[in-house]
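Comment thread on ticket #2218

A.B. wrote:
> Attaching the input chain for the structure job we discussed in standup.
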Amino acid sequence: MLLEIEGLQDKIEVEEGALLGSLLAYFPKKRAKEIVAFSWENKVYDLCREVPKECKKLIPVFLNEPLGLKILRHSAAHIMAEAVKKLFPSAKVTIGPDIENGFYYDFDYERPFTPEDLEKIEQEMARSVAANHPFVREELSKEEAKKLFLKLNETYKLEIIDELGEETVSIYRHGDFVDLCRGPHLPSTGYLKAFKLTSVAGAYWRGDENKPMLQRIYGTAFASEKDLKKYLAQLEEAKKRDHRKLGAQLDLFSFSEEAGPGMPIFHPKGALLRAILEDFEIKEHLRRGYEVVRGPRLLRQELWKRSGHYDNYRENMYFTEIDGQVYGLKPMNCLSHMLIYKSKLRSYRDLPLRFFELGTVNRHEKSGVLHGLLRVRQFTQDDAHILCRPDQLQEEIVGVLNFVRDVMKLFGFEYELEISTRPEKSIGSDEDWDRATTALTQALESLELKYDICPGEGAFYGPKIDVKLKDALGRKWQCSTIQCDFTLPERFDLTYIGEDGEKHRPVMLHRVILGAIERFLGVLIEHYAGAFPTWLAPVQARILTITDAQNEYVENCYKVLRQAGLRVEKDLRNEKLGYKVREAQLEKIPYVLVAGEKEVEAGGLNVRLRGGKNMGLKSLEEIVDIIYQDMDEPFKQGGMSYRYLY
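C.D. wrote:
> Ran it. Output below, let me know if you need it in another format.
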């Protein structure tokens, strides 16, 4: 058959049954060594498989590309599992996927793995790499696979096989190791040149705390040693910025076993930090034409059935009974907004309506996925629902995109945009989907914004734009979303009276800017390494005395600065000045104000910036102006204006 291969000038003649690996002969040797698989129609095939019969065009997958790195890391997980089985034969294997920037494998073993164990596992992996074992794919019937893994006493694999719908399953072998896996994999273990095991953690089987606790070994792998070293350096920096560590150091929040997993407790400074963030959000939404609303935390079960959440989401919800009626604790804020819309007759002149709520929701996340503020069971979302006429949809999307742009610029985030289109299972007409998808793309293009398309990854009820912000370390975080929703206006029979006097269905946009406030705070803490900009810092300045002789003067300065609305503290302890300055620096306070004999005589304070610069003696009026200007500066780029003053 005649086959086109991306990167080759001419089509080539390929015999039926030819292996994909044989196609490497058509590439220059250096380039051929970098190809680890081929893709066709969004499916990836390893080199040990045959050329698909219906295939007309293949795309090579290179090791240093995102798809190639996924294959590399997945294979690294298998090589690690092989090493663990050799060193700890009684360990049982479970699952080992690739993840962003790395991989993991979960093992059922009698004791936790130690750092010394990881070193031995790495050495054993290196021996497997040096042996250059080929990865070999085999297809077996479910019964044959069960016999194989029963003989190996791999009970977790038997459980997985029983759950598979297919009658045929695939396994992969390399060396003496065999694993149940869909693939794809590297041509051989020798392709794994740069890898590192990074940590061990406990993880419940299937993420269920009622099931066995497993040992999860994390690792990372890259196409080159240079890329690996760069990532490991970034990892060390990320450890310093870990929001859980900084949250304790800066006395922002804590978690307690008594309170339960996934339930953050905000201390005074952390609560003030989020209060400032939420206050900014409310005022900025009001400025942009949104109306602030608030709905109850508990809603009757019938309402959740009507919305579809009960059928599709109830395992993530909490329910309780009150006066013989079952109520659900809300996992999302949308239902109250639907009821607000329905509370009166709406005209086309009333639209668009923009309902905004800082609503607290609860979701039953499995304990295995909980992670500091980034994944919790109770959180507050900056939810808004925009209900508009079809002809207003694009303009509303543009408004949200401008909102996202201004807010991300304020916090110093770059971001990427993705459009997710119609999945196979969906509701709504072709016309609805085409109109909504066109509105999303045209809104992006009208602002000259670049975007990627993710085919078939939209929600079943509408297409969406996802905003992935990049922090100071280049890590990507999913926060903002702009989602078209066809199902709720239909389920709640939302209508408006059009110019023609007839009832029409409004179009609905669900959108978040920051997403979950707790998660966004976790991202912010790591992005800023705890050194918040002055407008957001819970403590903007601290006044230090040199001796007790300045105590009365500092008390007066403290009152003046507080009356100016500044968030200021005083440190009157009988400690050395250097000690107090270092402590303020560790707490990342933007301004350290020192009062000594000279400052008292001059009626001012010595001003030191968080970065180490000494501004010298300044009057209290000058200090207030300096801090005000520092607070205002970040808002100028987006044409915004905001101050949180006492």
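A.B. wrote:
> Thanks. Noting for the ticket: The CA atoms of residues 358 and 382 lie 5 Å apart.
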